Amino acid sequence: MTLDVERIRKDFPVLERRVHDDQPLVYLDSAATSQKPRAVLDAMAEYYELHNANVHRGIHTLAEEATALYEGARDTVAGFINATDRSEVVFTKNSTEGLNLLARTIGDSPSGGESGNEYGVGPGDEICITEMEHHSNIVPWQLLAQRTGATLKWIGLTDDGRLDLTNLDQVINDRTKVVAFVHQSNILGTLNPVEPIVRRAREVGALTILDASQTVPHRPVDLQSLDVDAAVFTGHKMLGPTGIGVLWARREVLDALPPFLGGGEMISVVQMEGSTFAEPPHKFEAGTPMIAEAVGLAAAVDYLQALGMSEVAEHEAALTSYALDALHTVDGLRVIGPDTTEQRGGAISFVLGDLHPHDVGQVLDERGIAVRVGQHCAAPVCRRMGVPATTRASFAPYTSFAEIDALVEGLQHVRRFFG
Ligand SMILES: Cc1ncc(COP(=O)(O)O)c(C=O)c1O
To answer: Is pLDDT at 111 greater than 90 in this prediction?
Structure first.
């Protein structure tokens, strides 16, 4: 069944906004953050109005209700990504925190030896990422390498913005302990093949970590069948609130890693001489968690599931195909990244002649069109593709074909504006 976009748009109050001289808002920046449906806003307001209390601590009615809502959100997320067990779902602040949690705790694990755990890294070990990562999946690994004496390697890119897997067996080798890679690039839109990378990582016994920030909101993602060891995603890009993300990892990985932050909620017994820790996921959730945000995230997942993730993927594939064709009619426009619909998602970066993307973005904004301009927290990609920055249009279930028409007309106007 195709999505009824006109009906869906009515669920998103902000899409009724008019900007700059009463023009309708054309929101094409969902890869940066998505808009939120009324169901999410209402769930969070209702939580504060009726159930607000701290979780896991009280025996009074509100505390029990808040705990049930918070833990219920964990069940909802676990079902959405097909986790084996709810204890594999750790709530974090966002994807960035999930990746830092992994890099930090892997670094805190002694590597090798009798007392060592199999996920630790040390001098001589290698960490493999790719050249198309968001900065949040580069910098934590650089810091880990600096801290431990390990070496950072990466899979490079082809000229059309795909992973160059020709030397995969060298880049991932017997020294590799961690392979962390993005499922879909936020700047290029490229959808990466998970299977060959995971297969190679398994051959050498490396831990696999998937940055699913740009796929979980847009297509069905079954983390068990992808066969990775851990994955992260972020609530605000999937119709949910800011301030909450998810780290999913196999239970044996969470069992083996040491705690991240210390404090309340994450302990079992605390004595002045030392403490023991709670079982996962609580071992990684120190302090009062983001309760209202978890409630909002669960409402967002319910909303997406009611639309159907296959239908969402189909809609966004149709938008992407339509947009690629339409963008090609704009004189001097060059897509940065895959130029066809094959193995790509609905984030399309481009340059327009030699105009700076900031100028393009500003003139589009004057017409009510919101796009993202810059390096999209993926500076190495811009360097590799030989551009200082790009303009990016990105889609969500509420994006309409008329909005793509508005973008293309806007770009034609930009061309005329700058002569
Ligand atoms: C692919 C990818 N990874 C990670 C992130 C970081 O997400 P957050 O800022 O919510 O931690 C983003 C956000 O743009 C992203 O697109």
So the answer is: no
